[in-house]
Amino acid sequence: QVQLVESGGGLVQAGGSLRLSCAASGTIGSINTMAWYRQAPGKQREWVATIGTGGSTNYADSVKGRFTISRDNAKNTVYLQMNSLKPEDTAVYYCKLRMYAGGSTYDYWGQGTQVTVSS
Description:
Elements: E1 3-7, E2 10-13, E3 18-25, E4 32-39, E5 46-52, E6 57-59, E7 67-72, E8 77-82, E9 91-101, E10 104-109, E11 113-118
Parallel strand pairs: 2-11
Antiparallel strand pairs: 1-3, 3-8, 4-5, 4-9, 5-6, 7-8, 9-10, 9-11
């Protein structure tokens, strides 16, 4: 059974920074991608950033230049460094682990961590 546990959310003023962590446990395939998503009240969940096993990254335009995704493969942990935060970044942030096996993909989600940015 794979479990993901996020931490690091909280309340911060606009312009401030937060660092989110997501630790995965269980049987983790060596080839996988880890990602962050977020969901604001009344809105659909949206993709924020992705990082591959080898460290390749992609970002949503709304966070490019402000957020940095990274990972520690030895710890099966992904991080999201969020700088220059804006009130519109307020959301519940979720991490997702995607693994690949037998031509299929398997997605696992964390429970989410709240990020609130005050103006």
